[in-house]
Amino acid sequence: MGYRVAVVGATGNVGREMLNILAERQFPVDELAVLASRRSLGTEVSFGERTLKTLDLDTFDFTGWDIALFAVGSDATKIYAPKAAKVGCVVIDNSSLYRYDPDIPLIVPEVNPEAVHDYAKKNIIANPNCSTAQMVVALKPLHDRAKVKRVVVSTYQSVSGSGAKGIDELWDQTKAIYNPTDDKPPKTFTKQIAFNVIPHIDVFLDDGSTKEEWKMVAETKKIVDKSIKVTATCVRVPVFVGHAESINIEFEDFLDEDEARDILRESPGIMVIDKREDGGYVTPVECVGDFATFISRIRQDSTIDNGLNLWCVSDNLRKGAALNAVQIAELLGREILKKG
Ligand code: 2RA
Predict the structure, then answer these.
(1) Does this model's pTM top 0.80?
(2) Which residues are listed for phosphate binding in this entry (predicted)?
């Protein structure tokens, strides 16, 4: 039994990855609709060996469709997701719009698959923020063994997290630095990102943190355990794809670094590459296109009683967005089958 699947925002980076991953994982698609805004009408997108032309989201009728993977901003999601949900098409939404709604499950399948039971409350399931997804995949197995008390995380987030404009900005600034011309300087949204790092993603909040940092706090509590204290510093770096994170964890109970490494090696969605030698760790350029959340640099933090440090890298367009959404669709498919 296959499903009638719509991909909303099919021309964006995440939408295109959703199509790639639906094909790669051979998700049972009986029929596929690729939707985009009217200005993108007719744009060709790939689904496996097939090429499809986008349809107009504004006039599309979701009646009779099973699942809609949404990869558009919150503004468009606010208009079209309720239309789909209302006619029984279950929305899996990558925007932040519904993540914090207590009646809408926020799911990372390796961490809280049971949350899918609540999908029918509003026929909407939320996908977490990219920087949260990879972190909770790493935290969950360690939390089950030694109960995570506090997390201090610094992120090194690639420019693709901010969409095509972020990629273009890095590319244009880098070219301009190497090939200065008399043309107008390349567009800079906040500060120069080429050969630089920017400790600012999303908007600033009253307490001095940014909304990106707040998301990591709120989403980790919803997905893993509301008792976990998280403090985050989210930084944009001149990398095209692949988010990296330095994660410091304090546990309730002591956890030896070797046992932690063994646990992570056996955990779903994780690839441990951790050798204390040149190149014995993963970097963002090596994670691109992969499904895994890579973990390296596992070591005790001897400054506290029950501390551990680790390095976590994953493709932000995949596990951070499109892959997690398709994995939720797989989970949902099994849930629907169970309900009969
Ligand atoms: C970013 N996590 O990296 C945000 C949204 N994808 O820009």
Answers:
(1) yes
(2) 99
Under a CB-based contact definition with an 8 Å cutoff, are residues 3 and 28 in contact? yes
Which mutation among 160, 316, 318 tests ligand 1's pocket best, with the greatest number of atoms within 8 A of CB? Answer: 316
Same domain, 54 and 117: yes
- State residue 300's pLDDT score: 98
For the chain, the helix, strand and coil percentages under 3-state DSSP, each to the nearest 5: 35, 25, 40
13 labelled as ligand-binding?
Answer: yes
Cα gap 324→328, rounded to integer Å: 6
Atom number in ligand 1 closest to CA 236 = 3
**What ipTM was estimated for this complex?**
0.94
* Judgement on whether residues 293 and 202 belong to the same structural domain of the protein: yes
| Whether residue 295 has pLDDT greater than 70 | yes
Q: Name the residue with the closest Cα to ligand 1, atom 1.
A: 161
The span from the CA of 142 to the CA of 265, in Å, is: 11
> Does 108 share its domain with 170?
no
Taking the C-alpha atoms of residue 8 and residue 220, their distance in angstroms, rounded to an integer, is 26
Same domain, 256 and 289: yes
89 given a catalytic annotation: no
